[in-house]
Amino acid sequence: MPGIDAATFDAKDLTPQSDADNTRVWKTAAGDMVTLYYFSKPQAFRATADDLVSIRAGSRRQASQYGGAIVEVELCAIGGLAAVREILKVPQKPTGMGYLGSLMISLGNSGYMVSVACLERGITGTRDTAIFIRLLDAGDVEFAAGAQQPTNWMGDPYDPSITGPPARNRADDEKYDSLFPDHPLSRVRSLLRQIGNSFGISDQAKPG
Fold first, then answer.
1. Would you say 118 and 27 are in contact if contact means Cβ atoms under 8 Å apart?
2. What's the CATH number for 4-122+181-199?
């Protein structure tokens, strides 16, 4: 039977924090948290195209409980296994955003999840402001007369009927990560890539 010991990924730059039962926690040099979970049934993850709409709806509900929104929820393959890649954004108090990324790897009747939590610290909103000004100057976003929110700036990535805050905005696009490598969203994506590219489980734990 698979368990937490069957899963490995590149953690050479991570500092172990705790190891209990089916949960392991590490910390990065930037203070971000990485957690590996193993789930046995009945908490198996679904990771098929037929489930994607409901998976996104579930992620959206989860984020909304904390006043947040989804940045992306996509299917992928990790170590040859079906998986879901998810990034949520959640407001912090008093200011700033926290970005929560996860890779949910399905084994059918069980699964693994690796979660990454990166928080905005210090001066907040610099990425959003810089990209908004760039797009405003280019005429890619604009304020309509009497509108409280600019057009073509903010919206759910999969449901065009959701346009209000705190929905994903265009500054969250991955193409801007290289301009803001220290931003928490950039760090989330970098960690998810590192983990996803190196994740593996023992042959004995793989589904038949």
1. no
2. 3.40.1000.10
Local structure of residue 169 (DSSP, 8 states): B
For residue 106, give every residue at least 6 positions away whose Cβ sits within 8 Å of its Cβ, in sequence order, or none. Answer: 44, 45, 46, 47, 81, 82, 83, 84
Q: Confirm if 60 and 42 have CB atoms less than 8 A apart.
A: no
Q: Where are the domains of the chain?
A: 4-122+181-199, 126-179
Q: Which residue has the higher pLDDT, 150 or 197?
A: 197
The one-letter amino acid code at 46 reads R
List of residues 6+ apart from 95 with CB closer than 8 A: 124, 125
Average pLDDT, the chain: 91
Q: DSSP label at 131? A: H
> Do 191 and 28 contact (CB within 8 A), yes or no?
yes
User: Rounded to an integer, what distance in angstroms lies between the CA atom of residue 193 and that of residue 68?
Assistant: 23
CB 23 within 8 A of CB 4: yes
| The pLDDT of residue 1 | 61
**pTM of structure:** 0.93
Q: Which amino acid makes up residue 64?
A: S
Beta strands in the chain (DSSP E): 7-8, 15-20, 23-27, 33-40, 69-78, 81-91, 97-106, 110-119, 200-201
Q: What value does the mean pLDDT take over residues 62-73?
A: 96
Contact 119, 96 (CB under 8 A): yes
